[in-house]
């Protein structure tokens, strides 16, 4: 029998106050898989990630992790269960050095050396930047630091929000190569992007969220052609 998916949202509804923004979302991410969650502004992509990481409650539906029902679990418990959210805007501490941004991850139980090894083997540029304030690095380098911090938690599932935000296409392509590499070691990755082109190149599956509903899903190649018609204009 197939193992259960690492992460599953089942018929999730979510709201802010009286305004419902997710109307029964189903998503599933398996080990080693990159799933792209695409859709226009305000579709509910970030909210879906927030439900998956326990930072926003679902009104109804279920959050399953490796077949376990963790609906209603708090962010800490979900982090312990292996869910790692890398928020839009990257969540690094701009005034701290790159090294200090990494070393605060010793709460994970990894030693300083282990954390630096995890980070610097995958992103050698971070070693060169170790003593520099994180906020003085390029956007792409900051995103690498955010990924390295996430990897230090030994995630089972990585949730990436708009990794490409504000970055040049070539930088985005390189980051996504690393994301694909991370997935190839068995991590399940759910990537939210508004503009699709780069992530479709590495995704195994893609879903398009429109006004809180998965309007379409399938193989990235199948969706690529339709996406512009669905909502993206000519930008893909
Ligand atoms: P974007 O690409 O613009 O971030 P998104 O697809 O990630 O869009 P969400 O951020 O999940 O969409 O937002 C879904 C809807 O919920 C939007 O209409 C948004 O205005 C609303 N919303 C998001 N956060 C809040 C909040 N804290 N309070 C009230 N409404 C919110």
Automatic annotation (TrEMBL):
GO molecular function, one term: branched-chain amino acid transmembrane transporter activity
Transport recorded as keyword: yes
Domain ABC transporter residue range list: 7-236
Pfam families: ABC_tran
Gene3D superfamilies named among the record's database cross-references: P-loop containing nucleotide triphosphate hydrolases
GO biological process: L-amino acid transport
Coiled-coil residue windows: none
Keyword annotations: Amino-acid transport, ATP-binding, Nucleotide-binding, Transport
Keyword hit for Nucleotide-binding: yes
Recorded superkingdom: Bacteria
PROSITE patterns: ABC_TRANSPORTER_1, ABC_TRANSPORTER_2
InterPro entries: AAA+_ATPase, ABC_transporter-like_ATP-bd, ABC_transporter-like_CS, BCAA_Transport_ATP-bd_LivF, P-loop_NTPase
Family statement drawn from the similarity comment of this UniProt entry: Belongs to the ABC transporter superfamily.
Protein name, as recorded: Branched-chain amino acid transport system ATP-binding protein
Organism: Parafrankia irregularis
């Amino acid at each position: 029998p197939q193992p259960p998916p690492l992460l599953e949202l089942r018929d999730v509804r979510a709201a802010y106050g009286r305004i419902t923004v997710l109307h029964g979302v189903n998503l599933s991410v398996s080990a080693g898989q990159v799933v792209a969650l695409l859709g226009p502004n305000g579709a509910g992509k970030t909210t879906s990630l927030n439900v998956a990481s326990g930072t926003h409650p679902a009104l109804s539906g279920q959050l399953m992790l490796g077949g376990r029902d963790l609906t209603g679990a708090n962010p800490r418990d979900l982090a312990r269960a292996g869910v790692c959210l890398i928020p839009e805007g990257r969540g690094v501490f701009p005034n701290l050095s790159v090294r200090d941004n990494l070393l605060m991850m010793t709460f994970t139980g990894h030693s300083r050396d282990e954390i630096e090894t995890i980070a610097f083997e995958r992103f050698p540029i971070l070693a060169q930047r170790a003593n520099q304030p994180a906020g003085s690095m390029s956007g792409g380098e900051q995103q690498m630091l955010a990924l390295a911090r996430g990897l230090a938690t030994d995630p089972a599932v990585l949730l990436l929000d708009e990794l490409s935000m504000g970055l040049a296409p070539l930088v985005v392509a390189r980051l996504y190569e690393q994301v694909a590499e991370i997935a190839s070691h068995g991590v399940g990755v759910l990537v939210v992007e508004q503009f699709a082109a780069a992530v479709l190149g590495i995704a195994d599956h893609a879903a398009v969220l429109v006004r809180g509903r998965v309007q379409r899903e399938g193989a990235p190649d199948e969706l690529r052609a339709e996406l512009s018609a669905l909502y993206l204009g000519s930008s893909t």
